[in-house]
């Protein structure tokens, strides 16, 4: 699985859960839908999504929470399409 496919799966999971702007989830929940050996790759992709301004951070007393940035909707759609195309092959 490529990095873009991993990002697409992460973003698809967050969009399906409705995690936009004011709805957050723990960053620790993201790797749960991937095989255990991919944990490092998933965490690296989450960091890249922060750099690309696609994910928004919300630090709390109980840990880092994340949500999707609605301004970057086009990028989100592109990554999801990459993931869906790889699954449908």
**Tally of strands:** 3
**CATH class label:** Mainly Alpha
Oligomer: single chain
Order of helices and strands: HEHEEH
**Percent of residues in beta strands:** 15-25%
| Helix content class | 40-55%
- Gross geometry: globular
| Major β-sheet strand ordering | 1-3-2
Q: If you compute it from the alpha carbons, what radius of gyration comes out, rounded to the nearest whole angstrom? A: 12 Å
CATH architecture: Orthogonal Bundle
CATH topology: the name is: Arc Repressor Mutant, subunit A
- Number of separate structural domains: 1
Poorly predicted runs = none
What is the CATH superfamily classification? Winged helix-like DNA-binding domain superfamily/Winged helix DNA-binding domain
Q: What class, by secondary structure content? A: alpha+beta
Give the topology, please.
Layout: H1 3-16, E1 25-26, H2 39-51, E2 55-60, E3 63-68, H3 73-87
Antiparallel strand pairs: 1-3, 2-3
Helix pairs in contact: 1-2, 1-3
Question: Any overview of this molecule?
Answer:
There is one protein chain. The protein has one domain: Arc Repressor Mutant, subunit A (Orthogonal Bundle). The mean pLDDT is 94. It has a 3-stranded antiparallel β-sheet. The longest helix has 15 residues. The chain has 3 helices and 3 strands; from the N terminus they run αβαββα. 24% of the residues are buried. The protein is α+β, with helices and mostly antiparallel strands and 89 residues long. A hairpin with a 2-residue loop joins strand 2 and strand 3.
